[in-house]
Amino acid sequence: MKYIIAIIQPHKFEEVKKELENVEVHLITVSNVLGRGRQKGFSEVYRGVEEIGLLKKIKLEIAVNEDFLEPTVAAITKGAHTGHPGDGKIFVCDLHEVVRIGTGERGGKAIG
Amino acid sequence: MSSGDTAWVMLCAALVFIMTPGVALFYGGLARRKNILSILMQCFFIMCLVSLQWVLLGYSLAFSPDLGHGIIGGLDWVGLNNVGMEPNADYAASIPHLSFMIFQAMFAIITPALIVGAFAERMKFSAFVVLMLLWTTFVYDPIAHWVWGTGGWLRDMGALDFAGGIVVHVSSGASALLMAILIGRRVGYENQSYKPHNLPLTVLGGALLWFGWFGFNAGSALEAGGVAANAFVTTNTATAAAGLTWALIEWQRHGAPTVLGIVTGALTGLVAITPACGFVSPLSSVIIGLLAGVFCYMAVTALKPKFGYDDALDVFGVHGVGGIWGTIATGIFANTAVNAAGADGLLFGNVKLFLVQGVYLLTCVTFALVMTWILFKFVDALFGVRVEKEDELMGLDLTQHRESAYTVLE
Questions:
Q1: pLDDT confidence of residue B258
Q2: Which of B8, B206, B228, B388 is most solvent-facing, going by the fewest CB within 10 Å?
């Protein structure tokens, strides 16, 4: 099992969601986050004081079984790609255990 | 007695009243989210505290017959004794004395509320209450007496302050600067972001201030007539000029005009025109507003970083510097063709008014600073003025008021 964390541009979220639905990945957790990359965000000015700003991003968290890993990564990449700086990143981690709270099922069965 | 004048002044009193909640929102939006309630509470508390202080003692100290030497009023009008429905010809011959009193009450309320921005996010609430009560009694009331009270020594000398450039703005701005220095910078100053947490609130507060300021300035004519109309027009014009100036400077220097910038700029115009509004022409008000934008912008963006004091929400940069400029500008641009009850300024060949305004400025700033220093040290010795570091980090909303403005979990 893998745990996928993706940071994407807010305006690409709908496209990513559609691509994920195309590969039948429906279960995602989404949060609004702030971040910056090598471009160092976007500076803001408050009464003449420049603040290094952070950019709004969306974080997706998706748990999948192994066979869904590549389609999911491909879907996110396709949906979130613009080719410009700031498109984001996908992190893939090993996932040790999943428990479905409702039934107590564990492992691969509990993911989807 | 004139029912028209009475209606006008009482409406204006209500307009000035809304400025204090306006200040609260203006400052509240600029604070961090963990401290917005503390700002709103401080302003609202002052509304209650000074309303009572004024009726019980303050109005008498500021406006009742002078005790001698023009320094302070007496105790004849304590508890509004001898202040009734008949006019007092010394102040406003065509409205009830009570109407004049409540109009002035609103000025007494907003003045300490302006100071809140300087020590924002770090003052203990109990110390705040005592300090503000002492400040309004020992700084505001005497200065108001000097220039507005019958027998006040600056009034007799011929100092002009139509709606409180010094009484309200310079006295609070100078005291605010000193309090900011005495209480010290916020924890993490220069290493931490102090971004405003809600600029739309600040814009709403700024708009309420502009709106209320028509009552503040035009109401100070104390009658519904030509001088009131002139004050209304100069107020709006100077404000517009100052707001545009600030925005254009930013556009040129930072590549974009900001919302906070235009609102702040407008505020500097309101402050600067306050002492002058009933004495200068609309055209002069354009210059006053324009230069207010320039001077205050420099104070906030250059002076403050250079000296490193943490006047958190720029009370000195806006009210202090704006008020100082307005007081000087009154000495330059005042014109008896606009208001026969005023005097001619430098531009119209009269050096005396300019010099008197200088005396007015220097004595009031000195007095405000010395008294504020004494009162601050007194309260600090008694209670400790500053919150504990842990409380400051957690925020004043929780630690001083056991509330939070915004929920995280719904």
A1: 97
A2: B388
For the segment B326-359, what is each residue's pLDDT rounded down to a tens digit? 999 999 999 999 999 999 999 999 999 999 999 9
Q: Is B257 on the interface with A (CB under 8 A)?
A: no
Residue B393 confidence (pLDDT):
93
Do the Cβ atoms of B398 and B408 come closer than 8 Å? no
Each residue's pLDDT tens digit, B371-395: 999 999 999 999 999 999 999 999 9
Give the residue among A89, A76, A71 at the shortest CA–CA distance from A18: A76
Mean pLDDT, residues B257-273 taken together: 98
Q: Do the chains contact at A45 and B256, CB–CB below 8 Å? A: yes
At A46 the three-state DSSP class reads: strand
Q: Chain B contact for A34, CB < 8 A?
A: no
Q: What is the amino acid identity at position B338?
A: V
Is residue B62 within 8 A of residue B141, CB to CB? The reply is yes
Residue pointed to by tokens 């000398």? B157
Residue A38 has pLDDT above 90, yes or no: no
Q: Which of B202, B200, B238, B201 is nearest to B218 (CA)?
A: B238
Which residues lie below 8 Å from residue B274, measured CB to CB, with a gap of 6+? Answer: B162, B163, B164, B165, B168, B169, B213, B216, B217, B235, B323, B326
Separation CA A101–CA B263 (nearest Å) = 52
The secondary structure element, H or E, covering residue B186 is: none
pLDDT over 80 at A112, yes or no: no
The pLDDT tens digits of the residues spanning A57-92 come to 999 999 999 999 999 999 999 999 998 888 999 999
Q: Which of B258, B313, B314 to mutate to test the interface with A (most CBs of A within 10 A)?
A: B258
Contact B201, B28 (CB under 8 A): yes
Q: Does A96 touch chain B (CB under 8 A)?
A: no
What order of strands is seen across the sheet that includes strand A88-94?
A29-35, A55-64, A2-8, A88-94
Question: pTM (2 decimals)?
Answer: 0.91
Instruction: Report which residue type is found at A27.
Output: L
Contact check, Cβ <8 Å, A45/B300: no
Nearest to B378 by CA among B143, B134, B174: B134
Beta bridge partners of A61: A5, A29
Q: In angstroms, what CA-CA distances link B192 with A51, A52, B404?
A: 10, 11, 22
B156 contact partners, CB below 8 Å, separation of at least 6: B70
Question: Is there a contact between B36 and B197 (Cβ–Cβ < 8 Å)?
Answer: yes
Say how far apart CA B125 and CA B42 lie, in whole Å: 8
Q: What is the pLDDT of residue A43?
A: 79
Q: Which residues on adjacent β-strands are paired with residue A6?
A: A60, A90
Strands A55-64 and A29-35: antiparallel
